[in-house]
């Protein structure tokens, strides 16, 4: 890191307090009901036919530009940012007459701005008082020389019970650990484990703890100025602190000492995948910049520097395996003995931006690649396991395009290496949960399910347009339609229609490879069981219930030959008749991934099916006879309607969160490749 980079870094870090207080204010003004998107981007006089704009307005300003400048650390004082925000509304009032719509919106937002500024000033003063009175064993009342803060506390880690419930251990609640072993247990699972144990054994085996721990940032003292700094502010790891440590401020002020070069993200070795993704990112930056108005486009030198600061690296590439749960393993292989492991290659792709003298980690993607030496359902497929990001990419308009480019670029690279299927589980994190980054900015929103699904829709639409993906659909939806076509049971089809609020696709609309597999597979001996019968004969053909059969947890995979779909006779974990032959065939097509829905849902579903199979089944004619003989029918006393059915919770979670995509190599015979995502609202 050079001296100039140190100066830029210190300048940026000292402006972080402005981002904390005024970042939410700008977000509020940009999303206000009176904004209408008028003040969020620069005025384009050519597009809006305003030839006299620059002759009236000498210093144009907009909220989007202020937001980007604030994120890059260009504002050093409150006065600078407040003047620019006020200038946005003054320009609108200066150029437009008092009765104009834009003038009225600017006046309304100006009042909101003034009232919010007073609240911010009150919070700043209150925080200054609290900080002056703060004293603890970590900071001992001393502020950091660079950022000015005292204690920096990390977000508390998320603890999940390792017992049967697998639920989150809430803050300030009690949990237990086993001495000398890993694992945490909530109070409910702890109560189950201690059944039959005496008090002495419980005390010797378990340790009681409370989930209220706080983890502050470590401190380091400069050997020259003897001031204290946070280790993260001083650019040093706590384990690398020495007695000769010199803080960044002292290094930047001493012309005789040159800072030691620090290896950043660019020093990480490259590989063919990282080089390919980097080239795709550069091309996408050029495409996005060309769509900007001419006066907003960066110059040639600035554009070149922007692309050089974007770094893509594969930081992890290991071979590992996932162990299939014992209750599900017999369905995958006929020679199941004790344990079934599926080998795969795990890769971690990291995306950095070099800005303000440091490398900022912006986006992380974990993928699992399954080769030929695995079960047919997982063969030659990739699984997008985790992805996470923080909103520090500058400029902000590159965020979504570049993240989409990284994902679609990886799919294109995987396709060129022989992989034919990709699976994505679009599951937004729960409130307070973090996937990869241990902490996210306070002003970064957590996407809900609808927003995340829309994000993936846009991603897959771009992939289809680029020829990377030829077919994409909701995995459960494709399953249910194949099941309906395969079994030729109208009752099943009706249930699926109610589940998705759509009509099932016709047989001719399914991919040719799927149709070929359906036609070549043998029919089940009894496709229409009593589980699929409706209780009301006059039910509308578009109304039905969700079926709780196992076919709703399976999918058809286009790259697997039909010979691989023969159900294994040794899969005897369920009694005969509890799973039909069709259900076993469909279950075998579900891939098994670490952390996906099948390991956590499949075992419970099999238990439910097993319990249902033990219940005595009553035919429909017997139920009608009992209803008619229980009490006489009369015009004044109509029969009571049947009780509503309870829909299984797994289906709702499954079709909301699962995506299934097939790459062109699987559907090469299709003349017009198409993609389909069918999700319930």
Automatic annotation (TrEMBL):
Q: Which GO terms describe its molecular function?
A: chromatin DNA binding; histone acetyltransferase activity; transcription coactivator activity; zinc ion binding
According to UniProt, the reaction catalysed is: L-lysyl-[protein] + acetyl-CoA = N(6)-acetyl-L-lysyl-[protein] + CoA + H(+)
Please give an example of a GO cellular component term from this record: transcription regulator complex
What sequence ranges are listed for the domain CBP/p300-type HAT?
262-681
Keywords, alphabetical: Bromodomain, Chromatin regulator, Metal-binding, Nucleus, Transcription, Transcription regulation, Transferase, Zinc, Zinc-finger
> Principal place where this protein is found?
nucleus
Q: What is its EC number?
A: 2.3.1.48
Region of interest (Disordered), residue spans: 515-553
Alphabetical list of Gene3D superfamilies matching this protein? Bromodomain-like (1.20.920.10), Zinc/RING finger domain, C3HC4 (zinc finger) (3.30.40.10)
**Chain ranges of the Bromo domain:** 31-103
Compartment(s) where it occurs, according to its Swiss-Prot or TrEMBL record = Nucleus
Mark out the compositionally biased spans (Acidic residues). Answer: 532-546
- Which GO biological process categories is it annotated with? positive regulation of transcription by RNA polymerase II
Concerning InterPro entries, the annotation shows:
Bromodomain, Bromodomain-like_sf, Bromodomain_CS, CBP_P300_HAT, Histone_AcTrfase_Rtt109/CBP, Zinc_finger_PHD-type_CS, Znf_FYVE_PHD, Znf_RING/FYVE/PHD
Ranges of Polar residues composition bias in the record: 518-528
Record Pfam families: Bromodomain, HAT_KAT11
Query: What's the stated role of this polypeptide?
Result: Acetyltransferase enzyme. Acetylates histones, giving a specific tag for transcriptional activation.
Q: What is this protein called?
A: histone acetyltransferase
């Amino acid at each position: 890191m050079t001296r100039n980079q140190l100066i830029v870094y210190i300048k940026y870090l000292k402006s972080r307090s402005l981002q904390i207080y005024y970042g939410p204010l700008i977000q509020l003004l940009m999303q206000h009901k009176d904004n209408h998107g008028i003040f969020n981007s620069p005025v384009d006089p050519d597009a809006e036919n305003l030839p006299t704009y620059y002759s009236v307005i000498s210093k144009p300003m907009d909220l989007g530009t202020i937001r980007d400048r604030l994120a890059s650390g260009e504002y050093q004082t409150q006065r600078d940012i407040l003047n620019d925000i006020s200038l946005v509304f003054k320009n609108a009032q200066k150029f437009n007459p008092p009765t104009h719509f834009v003038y009225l919106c600017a006046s309304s937002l100006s009042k909101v701005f003034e009232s919010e500024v007073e609240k911010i000033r009150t919070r700043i003063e209150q925080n200054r008082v609290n900080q002056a009175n703060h004293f603890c064993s970590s900071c001992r009342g001393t502020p950091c020389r660079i950022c000015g803060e005292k204690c920096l506390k990390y977000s508390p880690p998320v603890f999940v019970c390792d017992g049967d419930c697998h639920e989150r251990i809430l803050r300030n609640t009690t949990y237990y650990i086993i001495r000398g072993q890993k694992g945490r247990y909530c109070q409910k699972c702890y109560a189950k484990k201690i059944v039959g144990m005496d008090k002495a054994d419980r005390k010797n085996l378990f340790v009681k703890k409370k989930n209220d721990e706080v983890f502050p940032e470590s401190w380091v003292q400069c050997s020259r100025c003897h001031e204290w700094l946070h280790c993260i502010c001083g650019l040093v790891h706590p384990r690398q602190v020495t007695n000769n440590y010199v803080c960044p401020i002292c290094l930047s002020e001493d012309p005789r000492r040159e800072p030691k070069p620090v290896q950043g993200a660019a020093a990480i070795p490259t590989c063919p995948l990282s080089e390919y993704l980097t080239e795709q990112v550069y091309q996408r930056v050029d495409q996005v910049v060309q769509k900007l108005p001419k006066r907003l486009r960066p110059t040639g030198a600035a554009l070149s520097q922007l692309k050089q600061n974007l770094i893509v690296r594969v930081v992890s590439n290991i071979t590992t395996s996932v162990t299939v749960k014992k209750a599900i393993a017999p369905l995958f292989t006929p020679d199941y003995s004790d344990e079934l492991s599926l080998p795969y290659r795990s890769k971690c792709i990291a995306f950095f931006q070099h800005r303000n003298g440091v490398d900022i980690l912006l986006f992380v993607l974990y993928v699992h690649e399954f080769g030929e030496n695995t079960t047919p359902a997982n063969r030659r497929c990739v699984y997008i396991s985790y992805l996470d990001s923080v909103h520090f990419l500058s400029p902000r308009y590159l965020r979504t395009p570049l993240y989409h480019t990284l994902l679609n670029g990886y799919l294109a690279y995987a396709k060129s290496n022989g992989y034919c299927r990709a699976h994505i589980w679009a599951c937004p994190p729960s409130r307070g949960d973090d996937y990869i980054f241990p902490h996210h900015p306070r002003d970064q929103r957590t996407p809900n399910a609808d927003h995340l699904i829309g994000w993936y829709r846009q991603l897959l639409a771009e992939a289809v347009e680029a020829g990377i993906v030829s077919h994409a659909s909701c995995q459960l939806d494709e399953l249910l339609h194949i099941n309906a076509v395969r079994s030729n049971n109208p009752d099943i089809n009706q249930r699926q229609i109610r589940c998705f609020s759509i009509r099932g696709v016709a047989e001719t609309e399914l991919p040719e490879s799927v149709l070929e597999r359906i036609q070549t597979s043998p029919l089940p001996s009894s496709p229409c069981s009593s589980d699929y019968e409706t209780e009301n004969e006059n039910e509308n053909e578009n109304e039905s219930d969700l079926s709780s059969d196992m076919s709703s947890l399976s999918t058809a995979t286009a790259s697997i030959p039909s010979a691989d779909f023969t159900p294994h006779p040794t899969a005897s974990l369920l009694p005969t008749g509890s799973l039909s032959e069709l259900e076993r065939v469909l279950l075998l097509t579900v891939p098994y991934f670490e952390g996906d829905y099948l390991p956590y849902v499949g075992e419970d579903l099999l238990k439910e099916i097993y319990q249902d199979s033990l219940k005595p089944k009553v035919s429909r004619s017997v139920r009608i006879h009992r209803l008619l003989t229980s009490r006489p029918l009369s015009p004044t006393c109509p029969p009571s309607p049947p009780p509503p059915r309870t829909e299984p919770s797994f289906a709702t979670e499954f079709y909301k969160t699962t995506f299934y995509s097939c790459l062109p190599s699987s559907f090469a015979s299709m003349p017009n490749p198409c993609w389909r995502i069918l999700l319930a609202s």
